[in-house]
Amino acid sequence: MGKANIAIIGGGAAGFFAAISAKKHFPETEVTLYEKSDKVLSKVKISGGGRCNVTHACFDNKQLAGKYPRGENYLRKAFEQFNAQDTIDWFEKRGIQMKTYPDGCIFPVSNDSQTIIDCFLKEIKQQGIKIKLKQSITKISPTENGFELHTRDEKFTTNKVIVTTGGQPKRSGLEWIEKLGHTIIEPVPSLFTFNMPTNPIRELMGNVVEKATVKIEGTKLIGKGPLLVTHWGMSGPAILLLSAWGARILQEKSYQFAILVNWLDEMKEMTLREKLNEIIEEHGGKMIGNLNPFPVTNRMWHFLLEKSEIHLETRWKDIGKKNTNKLVNTLLNDRYEVSGKTTFKEEFVTAGGISLSEIDFKTMESKKVPGLFFAGEILDVDGITGGFNFQAAWTTGFIAGKHSGNLTIMES
Fold this sequence. Notes:
This protein is an alpha+beta fold. It has two domains: 5-189 and 345-404, 3-Layer(bba) Sandwich (FAD/NAD(P)-binding domain); 192-343, no CATH class. Helices cover 32% and strands 24% of the residues. The protein has 13 helices and 22 strands. It has helices spanning 13-25, 42-50, 61-65, 72-78, 84-93, 113-127, 175-178, 237-245, 247-252, 269-283, 298-307, 320-332, 388-404, and strands at 5-9, 30-34, 55-56, 98-100, 105-108, 130-132, 139-143, 146-150, 155-158, 160-163, 184-189, 192-195, 208-216, 222-229, 233-235, 256-262, 334-339, 341-343, 350-354, 359-360, 365-366, 372-374. Strand 4 and strand 5 (105-108) form a beta hairpin. The protein is elongated.
């Protein structure tokens, strides 16, 4: 009987990690990676602004799993096999040092995603893993000894298959997997920014408030963290968190909803009123527009005063009860209508994919089709922003590779 072989379909983060893991655990097995385009690791290249946010400094597996709006309970087990610390160790063993930033995001010290790509290509070459570009697999047919893979022009056989074709924006991209008996959870965008087409706040594009709390009106969804004003509306971690946790709810609302912004993090009304009274006592004679007592830019401060219909020349001692109430409401409960979203086309992340109940997360093998494995975003798994989606790719890829070579091939 010839050499056993494993086919990896999809040349992204999960695909490469699965291929390397498969070859490491089963060196006698032939591993081939099939990629439909003419280049591999394109999402790794552009991620994190071309710097590649490899993982996150979250070293408690339960806490780490809690960063995934879809997949938390399944990933908890998976992280016991390969977690954030394992990722750091894996790269450092190959000479790539990592740096942790204050927000917990971990990047290569080089700050260049090409470092990660070069590491993978070197590893692939050293291990003798084959890469076949412009090979679009259109169909997988189970056979007695494994699988037959179909491209438009040819078909070939393999013993095991790991599918790592990534998140699909449309359900049609997953129909070939559905035909194998898998349930597909409808894909919807997960990480996106909020559009406010006519709102004057867009004139403040580039302004960042480091600590804001944002709620989606009429829901329990809350996002906390930096908020960035853009030329189309709002972005930044606070918004992206909401878009991830609210992916399905916001899609059901057709991306028409309202948000409430607390510009002062989690400050409560009583605390704010006390602070305002102190300012009036100490700086009563100063003009409100010239004294900005809050961690927002002066441009933002003027914008919020104007929104509260308070003249910038008003002196603090003359603010009065009515204007104080307006200012308190604007600072702690500022309402904005959202109409539509903007996704990062190249870096899109989707909620949805293959139903997790049909996958054994100890091995990443399909419960429906023995010998078929899945890893990465093709699964109904997605993380919040900050390196979590790559961590899920490394983890599921590692596990799929580790278990894909347990070949129980029937002799014909």
